[in-house]
Design a protein that fits this description.
Layout lengths: L1 E6 L4 H17 L4 E7 L13 E6 L7 H23 L7 E6 L4 H14 L4 E4 L4 H8 L12 H11 L21 E6 L11 H11 L5 E5 L6 H9 L3 E3 L6 H8 L4 E5 L2 H8 L4 E4 L19 E2 L24 H4 L3 H15 L32
Parallel strand pairs: 1-2, 1-4, 2-3, 4-5, 6-7, 6-9, 7-8, 9-10, 10-11
Helix pairs in contact: 1-5, 1-9, 2-3, 6-11
Length: about 375
């Protein structure tokens, strides 16, 4: 019996990148048990997961704060492992327990050490190599080393391989099929976790204005439900809908599954759309795909970078540093027309028989999505 504890206590996007590898390995090893440690708010994206994956969530803002919280989490995890082994009818000494630390930060190191002490037997362990030095060289102010680094997804696979798991098949999508209709269903995630990764909101509004000139276009915005910018756009332009929900990520993924294309920053929504095999036009401002955080399975040509050679770009791996120039030139050099052209290129490839025709005066409609448009399905099975 193989039992694997996987640790990834971080941002939603990082967890979403890991999900294809985890689902594939769990499906190919149905007799193994996988305990996935992550933040409480991230468990909602684990829809349609294999039955041998169990999510152990923690709340770092409340009961799981600090060392005491990590200690409590370790006790809970070991207890669940022991219960599973007992009910499986296998001797505890014969169970093969493994740990894959996919985070490699102080919190995960402490948790991993506590876990190994409490298990009271040898445990095979693998820790992800994040390539921190390579990433620092990519983003340093001078003498940048501009080359494609190993993707985060590949780093996850390498870590799994060190504890004996090598996927034999390729993950495609959470859902077995994509829903299709005769409309142009476009998802747009206008925001990112950091200002330096967010494209000009004026440009985003201009893009939406141009797209809604086509009567077949339906735009579905993904942000926080109370985002004032999103509320303004849904009230100002026809066929623009707010598709976000704080508590219903499965419904958001269901809506994404009906899209023809998604437009996103370097953000979690790029990775969520990738989970349902939707083509993503990704806009990169202060960050760069070379750092390894490109969407799983996405066409590299769909990435849009600053249109001129800025010596300061990229200035950050995660977008969490202020602009070194102070003017965010990387945002200003990305043209609306380039984004629009890539959107129609993707739609023309997915719906070649439907003509892309514009009208100057769109019919105003701000109510519920019409029949045939994507709408939130019933909660997906977790």
């Amino acid at each position: 019996m193989n039992i694997t504890v996987i640790i990834r206590i971080s941002s939603l996007g990082d967890v979403a990148i890991l999900l294809p590898a985890l689902y594939t390995i769990a499906t190919e090893n149905p007799n193994d048990r996988f305990f996935f440690i992550t933040l409480k708010q991230h468990r909602k994206i684990f829809v349609k997961r294999p039955s041998n994956i169990q999510i152990i969530s923690l709340d770092t803002k409340k009961q799981d704060k600090g060392i005491a919280g990590i200690f409590r989490l370790a006790i809970t995890t070991v207890s669940l492992i022991r219960k599973y082994i007992k009910y499986s009818g296998v001797s505890y000494s014969k169970a093969n327990i493994r740990i894959a630390d996919m985070h490699s930060v102080l919190r995960s190191h402490i948790f991993r050490i506590l876990l190994k002490i409490m298990i009271l037997r040898p445990v095979k362990t693998a820790i992800i190599d994040k390539g921190r030095r390579e990433k620092a060289a990519l983003c340093r102010p001078e003498n940048k080393v501009l080359k494609q680094l190993k993707t985060t997804y590949q780093r996850y696979l390498d870590t799994f391989a060190r504890i004996g798991y090598k996927p034999r098949t390729q993950f495609k999508s959470i859902y077995p099929e994509r829903d299709r209709n005769n409309l142009f269903n476009i998802g747009i995630a206008p925001m990112a976790g950091h200002p330096s990764k967010t494209w000009s909101l004026e440009n985003m509004e201009e893009l939406i204005r141009i797209l809604t000139e086509n009567p077949r276009v339906r735009i579905f915005l993904f942000s926080t439900p109370r985002d004032k910018y999103v509320k303004m756009l849904t009230g100002k332009y026809p066929h623009v809908y707010n598709s976000s929900s704080e508590s219903k990520k499965p419904q958001e993924l269901g809506i994404m599954n009906r899209l023809d294309v998604m437009v996103s920053m370097d953000s979690a929504n790029m990775h969520l759309a990738s989970l349902v095999a939707v083509p993503v036009i990704s806009i990169w401002c202060s960050t760069h795909p070379y750092a390894g955080f490109y969407g799983y399975g996405q066409d590299p040509s769909y990435a849009i970078l600053p249109s001129r050679n800025l010596s300061c770009h990229p200035c950050s791996v995660y977008g969490n540093v202020p602009c070194p120039r102070g003017d965010y030139a990387c945002k200003k050099t990305i043209d609306v027309g380039v984004v629009k052209s890539k959107i129609w290129r993707v739609i023309s490839a997915t719906k070649p028989k439907i003509r892309v025709k514009k009208t100057k005066k769109p019919i105003r409609h701000t109510g519920s999505p019409p029949h045939g448009s994507p709408s939130a399905p019933s909660p997906a099975d977790e």
